[in-house]
C-alpha cells in the first residue's frame, strides 16, 4: 500500500511540475484588437437603447475613456464605459435627441489586455431617426506665426451660425488635421482651442484658432479645399517690468515684457540707452558710487512704473578661493583673432563715452605684407560703439593699436590702450525691391534653415530693403502684414475678434554665398489665383484660405 501511495505522489509531482510556466519564444503580439461585432449593430437607425456593446477578437482594456472617447453631438451627462468579456460596454446616461446622428470616436481609448497595443481609432455611429447624417467637414490647424501644424493635439468645435454651444466636436491628429463625420447639411463656424477645462468652448486664456467665414458641410472631402484654422496664443499680459537691478554701483539694468516704443527714465541725474530690440534699458547714474535710487520708467500710456532699487554686491571666487568682483572693461574689441564678427573692425564701450579727437586717426597695419595706413575711428551717436572707417580685404590679417585716453566716459574716466587683431570674413547680401500692395506696413524677416529669424526690417510702403552680413547658407523670406503698425507680428484676440496677423512667404529659397549680393523683386499682398472660376474665393487679407496638399 505504501509503495502504491509513493508512486501516486511521484506522478502528481511530475505532472504538477510539467504544468508550471509556458513555452518561451514566438513573435511578440504587436497587433491592436479588432472589432468583430456590435450590439446593436454599427450604423443602426431608430436607436432607442440605453447602451451598446462592441466585441473584439481578444480581451481589451480601457485607457482614460472619459478623455479619449469623443461624442458628437456632445452629451451633458457622460456615458459610463466599462469592459465586459472581450468587449466594451457603453451605458448612456443622457437623453438622446430625436432624429439625430450620434458619433462615438474611440481615440486610442481601447488596447489589448496582454500587450497594451492601442486601437488608433474606432467609430461607433447610430441615428435616433430613420436617416443617417453623412455630411462632413475637414481641415487643418496651423500655427499662425509660421504656418506649421500646431504643436499639440487640440479640440475643434463646430457651431451653428447663431449658437453659443457646439453642435459637433472633434480633435486634431498629430499632423494638425481634423474631420467632422456624420453631420447634417448646413453651415458652421469652426473654432480650434486648447480646451484645458474640457468644455469645448473657447476661453480667453487659451490658444485659439477660428475663422470669420461659415463653412458648408459636404458629402465628400476635397483635399484641395481644406479649411485652415490659424491658431495663436493670446497676449493678455500687461506691459510690465520683468527685472530691474543694479548690475554694479551706479549702473542699473531694466528689462520689460515687450519692446518699449518711446521710453523715458526720470530720477536723479542719469543717462540711459535702449537695446536694439527695445526690451532692455541700461541706466548710468552720474553718481557712479550710487548704491540706491528711485527711478520712474515711462513708455507713453503703456507703462508707468516706480522702481526702488538697492545695490547688492555680486561676489565671485577666484581659483585661489579669494573673493573678487569682476567688471567689463570700459573699452573692448568686437573682434578676436581670426574670428571677426563684423565686416567692419569695431570696438564697444561698457558705458557712453565721448571722443577727445573727432574723428581720431589710427594706424592700421596689414600683418601679412607689413603695410600700414592711417584711418579714422568713428564714434556712433549713442557713444557706445566705434568703427574703423576703411574697406577691409577678406583674408587679410589686421592689427590696430588704440592709444590710452582717446575716449572719456561720462564719469571722466579715460580709456586704457587697446591692441587687437582681426581677419575679416566675407558675407553675402540680399537686396529686396518690394512692391507692397497692402494698405499697411510690412515686417520683412530673413529666416535660416531652422526657420529662426536672423534679421528683420520694417517697410511702411514699397521700396528697397538690404540685408547685409549674412553668413553663407540658405535663407527664406517672410513678410508679416503689420496691420497694427507695431513693427512685430501680433497674435490673435478672440474676444475682440482680431485675427492674428497674416504673413506671406517669398516663393524662392535663396542661396547666399560669400561676396554675393542677391537682388530680388517681390510683390507682397497679391491674392492667389484660383484654379477654377466656380471655386469660392477666400476673403482677403483675413478669412478662409485655400491650400493645396
Architecture overview:
This protein is mostly beta strands and 549 residues long. It has five domains: 35-127, Immunoglobulin-like, CATH 2.60.40.1220; 135-232, Immunoglobulins (Immunoglobulin-like, Sandwich); 241-310, Immunoglobulin-like (Sandwich); 331-422, Immunoglobulin-like (Sandwich); 428-524, Immunoglobulins (Immunoglobulin-like), CATH 2.60.40.10. The chain is 4% helix and 43% strand. The protein has two helices and 46 strands.
Biggest sheet overview: 8 strands, mixed
User: Regarding CATH, which class of the largest domain?
Assistant: Mainly Beta
Topology-level CATH name of the largest domain: Immunoglobulin-like
Fraction of helical residues: under 10%
The assembly state of the depicted protein chains is: single chain
CATH architecture of the largest domain: Sandwich
Q: Overall mean pLDDT score?
A: 85
* Number of helical elements: 2
Number of strands: 46
In the predicted model, the low-confidence regions spanning at least 5 consecutive residues are 11-23, 317-325, 530-549
CATH superfamily of the largest domain: Immunoglobulins
**Integer-rounded radius of gyration:** 35 Å
Structural class: mainly beta
Q: What global shape is seen?
A: elongated
